[in-house]
Amino acid sequence: MADVKWIKIVTDIFDDEKILLIESMPEADSIIVIWFKLLCLAGRQNNSGVFTLNGHIPYTEEMFSTIFRRPLNTVRLALKTFEMYGMIEIINDTVTIPNWGKHQSIEQIEARREYQRNYQRQYYAKQKALAEGKQSKRLEKCLDEDLDKQNINTPDKNRLDKNRKDKDSVVVNDYNPFGDPSEAPDTPQHNPLLVYAEANLKSLSYGNRNELMRFMEKLPEDVIRHVIDETCAVGVSNWAYVRKVLRSYIDDGITTMAQVEAREKQREEERRRAERNRQAQQAAEENPLARAKFY
Hints:
By secondary structure, this protein is mainly alpha-helical. It is built from 13 helices and 4 strands. A hairpin with a 3-residue loop joins strand 1 (about 50-55) and strand 2.
């Protein structure tokens, strides 16, 4: 399963007729909280909205009550309400959320990433052939189409058109504003990582690309790609967030994916420990005897 840590919630969800009807019921707030907990649990599982443990054990009402930290009767009322309004379906004793794709579409994300990977391989192969002086007329046409799709209209593009008046000659340097084919990887059109960043992040400026190139001198490609992927996964998709994370990696001496994964695991453990402490404190506040012991 893809590791996607988000779900989509529309901003007018509380104007939905089903939510309005639920709000008129007893324990409305608890039922709505359980609905959002269901959505988040389904999002973490990445199982197309089907609630199973280890892929084959259906979740029971008691299991939901334990995981959501809510009374069993309240969970039963919520599930019965959701089923009545068509928000969930129970198939073979398994709770499912119909039309889960509107909350989380894994297939589209994977298809987009696969398309980008294929595009980068093809584009890099074309640019490599160009740098080696093996360009053909068909390759020239493909590169022209790529430039047009990117709305590139620069003096270099115009100069290339002028030089092509000589049908039998190929001017390799016209693709490179530095005039030296050996420097081609330093341009967004030639470097796969820069192309990847352009495809995933919003409106990279010339200065942003230069910053990314400097980060590439200090961090490996897989680390930078990971940060870009995580940024897109949380719905941010801007260079400022990526730059902040990359700088923190450099400041903390993190330069490999193994170190990145270790750091993420440590932060997850810290988050869980803080949550356990919060729950313990809440339980102590609700129980006078436990509160006396807690303090």
